[in-house]
Amino acid sequence: MRGSYTNTPLSIFRRREVFEEAHVPEEFLYREKELEEIASCIRPLLQGFQGTNMKIYGKPATGKTTSIKKIFEQVPKSNIACVYVNAMLRQSPYAVLSEIAMNLGQQKAMPDKSTGTVKLVDTIMRLLKKRKSAIVLCIDEYSCLSPKDIEAVIAPFLRPWEFGKISQDLNSSVLLISTSTAAPPPIRSSMISSMGPRTLKFRQYSFEQKYDILNHRAEAGFGKNVVEDDALEVMAGIMSVRWGVQALKLAGEIADTMGETKITGDIVSRTLKKMGTGTDVHSVLNSTEKIILYEISKRKKMFSGEIYSFSLDKLGLKKTRTYEILKRLLKLGLLEVTEQNNKGKTRIFKTVQGGRLNGMS
Ligand SMILES: Nc1ncnc2c1ncn2[C@@H]1O[C@H](COP(=O)(O)OP(=O)(O)O)[C@@H](O)[C@H]1O
Ligand SMILES: [Mg+2]
Predict the structure, then answer these.
(1) Which is the closest atom of ligand 1 to the Cα of 177?
(2) At what angle do helices 287-299 and 304-315 cross, to 10 degrees?
(3) Which of the residues in the chain have pLDDT under 50?
(4) For a 10 Å CB count at each end of the chain, is N or C smaller?
């Protein structure tokens, strides 16, 4: 036991901050096309024209929010204000609009709530006029607002010339993001023509893409080759990138408490148990691996010879292939092995945790 519970003199972490939720990764992979689409909505503002509006949608952890953050990093701030509001955290038009005003530098008290949102919009338009600035407004998780509330928030930016003299020349681009798979959530029919037709779907990452993204994050946070292939494979196989990043952080913490310098499959198994997310390490196994594991679990224990004959007879696998499978199951922490001296050495395999296999029956 080390001297203190809080002081870890040797840590596997090199840059812990890369695993924080708010961190914007330096390397944002596989989203060039999407970034370009978003950039093309904003580009006209740079030339003094109206921007394009767009609805962005897709499953969780497909990089929607990060894309906006990446684009906002690149927009020249001198005459374009980039404002991001998450409607999950501000669930009324008043709350969203006062956040926008604050983002634009409003320091004085906000107009009284009782005057409704008209005063607030006026404040925002004056701030933009003073800055001689166009605006890119991103409302993330917009379906947390009702269609009527969405209208109250975006209508002044979609049709600024109708709002009043002060906003007559305002150029804007409105980007609405939502977590939905099939199509973006509806907005009021009165808003549809002003929003325009553009939508952008963020597709889910493939296994290989997730593996690559998590590998880059692991290298940024821990250094090269600290997280073993098996461990990354499990994470990419069963969870989203968001959960994978969380799992990497927790795995690092577990490795630290164990005094380990590598993140192995076994550490990932422990991590998953701790996360209790319903994620199941078995779901990364292929059917052959599952059959062998299930057989061992059914028989409570098996000698290595028995396993080799079982996989040859039932699955037609050569000894070398079975050996590889056993090695992987051991690495993933699903099997344990003991040696017995019984007229020569023999190895006995058992499943870990009494061999209760989720979703196998
Ligand atoms: N292409 C990618 N490259 C690197 N990290 C990514 C990528 N896509 C998502 N992430 C990471 O996954 C997590 C979730 O991404 P986020 O943009 O918040 O997803 P969404 O908004 O679609 O739910 C964040 O930690 C983010 O850094
Ligand atoms: Mg998001």
Answers:
(1) 21
(2) 130
(3) 1-3, 354-361
(4) N
The pLDDT of residue 278 is 52
* Ligand having the closest approach to the CA of 60: 1
CATH topology of domain 32-202: Rossmann fold (3.40.50)
Q: Is 64 in the pocket of ligand 1 (CB under 6 A)?
A: yes
To test the pocket of ligand 1, the residue of 35, 242, 246 to mutate (highest count of ligand atoms within 8 Å of its CB) is: 242
> Which residue has the least CA distance to atom 14 on ligand 1?
61
Residue 14, pLDDT score: 96
pTM metric for this prediction: 0.79
pLDDT, residue 277, reads 52
Which fold would CATH assign to domain 285-355? Arc Repressor Mutant, subunit A (1.10.10)
In CATH terms, the fold of domain 206-282 is Helicase, Ruva Protein; domain 3 (1.10.8)
Ligand nearest to the CA of 34: 1
pLDDT at 328: 84
- Which residues have a Cβ under 8 Å from the Cβ of 120 and sit 6 or more positions away? 94, 97, 98, 101, 110, 111
Q: Is the CB of 62 under 6 A from ligand 1?
A: yes
C-beta of 63 in contact with ligand 1 (< 6 A): yes
CB neighbour list of residue 102: distance below 8 Å, 6 or more residues apart: none
The angle subtended at Cα 304 by Cα 303 and Cα 308, nearest 5°, is 120
